[in-house]
Each structure stands twice: as structure tokens, then as C-alpha cells.
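User:
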Amino acid sequence: MSEPKRALLGPRIEELPKSTLPAGLAKSGGQYPFFCSSPEVKSCDRWLLDAPAILMGTGGVATVHLGQGQFAYSTDTWAFRPSGKRTNVSFMFRQLEHLLPKIDHLGFEGSGLRHLQKSFIRNLRLLLPDEDQQGKIVEVLDTLDAAIRGTEAVVAKLRAMKQGLLHDLLTRGIDANGDLRPPQPEAPYLYHQTPLGWLPKEWGTSKLPNLAMSNRPVIRTGPFGSSLKGEHWREVGRPVITIGSFGDSSFIMEELLFIDEKKARGMLEYEVHPGDLVFSRVADVGRSLVVTEEQAGWIMSSNLMRISVEPRKLIPTLLHAQLRYSARLRKQMSQLVNSAGRDVANSSVLLALDFAVPSQEEQQQIDDAIAASDGTLAYEERKLDKLRLQKSGLMDDLLTGRVPVTPLL
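Assistant: Predicted structure:
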């Protein structure tokens, strides 16, 4: 099988005039796309070109865009297009998009403000299939991009809906018919005033000591910093949770640290149990995650606290939802944290907080509704990850000639 034909990029491109428009011309809601030296496409009210072109940022990080229709580009952007008819401009754009990591690593110079070396781009030797093959590759990748954009829109919508749903669930709850209660202004007789504002009449409020287990302290602060130092870290062993290992919905396994079992046995009071909340007391104060069965026995580090409540009084995941999403409770916590003059939470801050406590039955209904919302969002996020991975694999196969495009024709 013969090697796919390749050709230098430099002789095949036509450089377009340098722009006179500064990047500062960008404005929100502008009429035309405005390409600057950044991954995001901005907008402005002027246009420079009305023909397809490739736009590459010349400073900072490697970026490439395909300009179509009427658009503008800034002074820190290099604009060019194929100089002949043998190269599809969209295909050339896809080739450069695929090579962005390589361009970012090898195509820039400068230790301060990095600058794109145009000679590096011109000296790229890229695949040059016939025009039909170029068009088919572009069609496949455009179709995938459309699917990715559609799924991104679904994910963004679900995230926004989740925020609204959580607000309603944590302030209105679910009535006997399984529906959200009407808002307080529409049905004031269903609500009563509490330290957290208007809440359903059936709900109470409680501070953490009243939610404690009988055999476990409700709050435990992580060990002194000197208890876990660099000399204690191992490649494998008992996982140690740090602030850096907090993800959006679970711990980031790659960010966990480890200690040996001998050291871990000396830190039993800092172990976490299933249902515990691990709580960040510095930096992004109030960030929390619920410990699962698989994470039992992990050790928390010095900048964390754990909260343990009796599930028959308040479901731990509902406690977590309030700490993370209740605007009223977070405002209360922010006032307590800032009153100390620095952005650090301690036991007294947590012990002063008021938590909403619905009936056990309603707690479970609320928890189920949150779990269903999380499940739908997680499904779409996995779908988005799969599409992005599929695109990456196809680009690697089709744009390098590793897999022939002929079967797609």
C-alpha cells in the first residue's frame, strides 16, 4: 500500500492583509463574529471579510478558527486561505485543528508572551487527498461537530434547569400529591417564617448538634498540617482527600494522595465513613461531597472537615444539597465566615448554621428528584464525552491517512 500523498503547507496558502482592528473592539452582542487570539469567538459591529478564511491566534496559546460569511479578525490574528483549488479551506482548517497540541508545544517562541512562528506552520507537511476525499472528511467531522454542539446545548440547559429545580425543592418541597408546592406569594397559608426564610409549614429547622449521631461527633476538623507532610506520601496506600481532589460530583481519583497503612492506623479519628460529608473549610468554603461505601476509610487532610448526621433525622445527600445549593444557607454561612475577617470556616461557623428539615418521607422524595435530575445530566455528559472522543479518534485516523477515507465515499 502506497504512502498517502503529503505536501508542504506554505506554498499552498495565501496570506490575507493584516487587520487594523484591536482585540479591544470586541463587544457583547456584536453583529459579526470577531476572531482574536483566544479560543472563544467574540463579536463586534464591523466586518473585514466576506469569504472563507482560516484564522490563527499569534499570541498566548494555539488557536485556529474557520471564518465564514461576514466576519472580522483582530491585529493579533493571522488570516490566510488556500491559494489554489486543490485544497478545501474547511479541510485545511480541520488539519490545523487536529494539530493544535503540536503547534502549541512546538510552534511558539518566547518565555513571557509566547508568539506563533508562522514558519513552523508553513513547514508543516500535511496529507493532500483528492477533493472528493477532502469533502467527505469535512462532512463527517462537521456532522460530529453538529452533534457535539447539540449535546453541549442540552447539557447547558439541564444544568440551568437543575439550578432552578434545586432552588424550588429546597424552598418549596414536594406536597402529598408528589408535586412542587406553589410559591409562597401564591399560597402564603402553606408556609411559615423560619431562620432560613419562608419554608413549608410541615418543615422544621435544626442546627447540626440536634442532627448528630449518638456514637459519632457531628463535626471533626482535619489533622494539623504537620501530621501529613511530604515525607508521608506514598505511590500507593490509603487514599488521602485534599481540596485538590474535589470534583463537581465526585472525588478526582488522579488528585488523591496516599499514605501507608501504619500511618493510616494512627489517624483513625480522621477517617471518613459512608454518608459523611467532606467539607472544604478554606479556599472555596462550603464545597462538599458525600462519602460512598467505596470511599470508607479514606483520610481527610488538614484543610477539610467532616460532618456526620443521623440519616433518620436528615439524609446526608440532602444536607449536602443545602450546603452546596441553598442560596439562603450559603448567605448565612458567608456572613459567619466573613465576620471572622478571613475566608476560613471553623466548627463554630458550621454549628451556627440552620438547616431545613422536612419529614422523612418528603426528604426521600426530594432526594429522589435530585438524583433523577443528576442521572439525566450525567447521561448527557457521558454522551458528550463519547462524542468528543469519537471526534478525536476520527480526526487522528482520517487526517493522518492512518485509515483511508475511501470506504466513506
